[in-house]
Design brief:
Blueprint lengths: L5 E8 L3 H7 L3 E8 L2 H14 L11 E3 L17 H4 E4 L5 E4 L4 H5 L14 H7 L1 E3 L5 H8 L8 E3 H13 L3 H9 L1 H4 L4 H14 L8 H13 L5 H9 L8 E2 L5 E3 L14 H11 L12 H13 L4 H9 L9 H13 L1 E5 L5 E5 L3
Antiparallel strand pairs: 1-2, 1-3, 4-5, 6-7, 8-9, 10-11
Helix pairs in contact: 6-7, 8-11, 10-12, 11-12, 13-14, 13-15, 13-16
């Protein structure tokens, strides 16, 4: 197999006049070094998407001669400005030639009106051009997505001006601070992902002016750290007031819960692993305060978990598979596990100490 690579230059013409007017471009130029043309075309389409352009707005990429000019775009970059200076043509039809002024224009004195060489009003053209949102500052990108059902990738000049005004007048100070504090986390987001974050943040904090900065930034972190398929569920938990940092699932894929307040220490991060320790503790033949588990009991429970001793392992398998199991209180878990495992009748004293009485069966 040949390992030789060559340089491929590609020209992507705008599909029609409607696209040219909407995007304000004639086409796009791209070049790369690859083994074959199909690879170069694939990279071109990817670069097109990276610049927030839609493949459907262009005709199929055509290979052209690689120009030898000083203003050649960097390798791997889809550049539309280059096509405002050069066009596909030449004697062979595949050479990018410089677009110079026509002789008639050169002979005429400089015109003071704002028209291009085709006689079109440049003011109207510039006003109708849509600008990519991705190149704007993060607060502007954020505001562009606010209230929109779909990701906003391009805006007109008037819309962009309105966004800059809205930044000062409509973006709540706490939201602006949250965005500023988490710029490193948010700045690299694709527009479609930023749109979803803005949409779900608005659901959780409908009145951000009355919201806590720490909560908003915590939601950003939890949301972006969550699996893509869990973000909707995490948003629903936050909307209910459950400030979960993750979505835990059972082996079957059901939501294991963990968002509800229980009788556990509020600083405890309750997971399926901490659940195992509670189940194991319930199988031990000793009395203890369930809210202040002694070190000796805790260490023995950890051994039971590590060694997968019975009857712990059977109860662990059953309870871990139960949807919403992490929302059950510690008292409920220990009572269920010990009563059914040890055939003990269990009662709890006001101090929280469990007393076991053998029922004789």
């Amino acid at each position: 197999m040949s390992t030789d690579k060559e340089e491929f230059a590609l020209y992507c013409e705008a599909k029609n006049d409607k696209v040219r007017k909407r995007l304000g471009i004639k086409g796009g130029f791209y070049w790369t070094t690859a083994k074959k043309l199909s690879v170069a075309i694939s990279r071109c389409i990817t670069a097109m998407d990276d610049n927030d352009y839609d493949e459907d707005d262009f005709k199929k990429p055509v290979r052209v001669n690689l120009p030898v000019v000083d203003d050649l775009p960097p390798e791997g970059v889809f550049d539309t400005e280059f096509c405002n200076r050069y066009e596909k043509g030449g004697k062979d039809g595949i050479t990018m030639t410089f677009i110079g002024p026509s002789p008639s224009v050169q002979d005429k004195p400089a015109s003071t009106d704002n028209t291009n060489i085709n006689g079109e009003d440049m003011t109207e053209i510039e006003e109708s051009m849509l600008l990519p949102v991705s190149g704007q500052e993060l607060p502007i990108r954020w505001l562009a997505q606010h209230g929109s059902e779909k990701p906003v990738t391009h805006v007109s000049r008037d819309e962009l001006q309105a966004l800059h005004i809205a930044r000062a007048e409509e973006l709540p100070a706490v939201t602006a601070l949250a965005i500023s504090h988490k710029t490193s986390l948010l700045d690299s987001l694709e527009i479609r992902d930023l749109h979803k974050l803005v949409r779900d943040t608005d659901k959780v904090f409908p009145n951000p002016g009355n919201s806590d900065l720490g909560l908003i930034t915590a939601f950003f972190e939890a949301y972006l750290d969550a699996d893509y398929t869990d973000r909707g569920l995490l948003t629903k938990e936050w909307m209910k007031g459950n400030r979960v940092s993750r979505i835990t699932r059972t082996a079957s894929g059901a939501n294991a819960g963990g968002g509800n307040k229980t009788d556990r220490n509020p600083n405890l991060v309750h997971t399926l692993d901490t659940l195992d320790v509670e189940i194991a503790a319930a199988t031990l033949p000793m009395d203890f305060n369930i809210y202040e588990i002694p070190g000796s009991v805790y260490r023995r429970a950890k051994e039971v978990v590590l060694n997968k001793e019975s009857p712990f392992k059977e109860w662990s398998a059953a309870l871990r598979a139960t949807p919403g199991i992490l929302d059950y209180s510690r008292a409920a878990i220990l009572h269920l596990s010990e009563a059914h495992t040890l055939n003990f009748i269990t009662t709890r004293t006001p101090s929280g100490v469990y007393q076991r009485l053998f029922d004789g069966n």
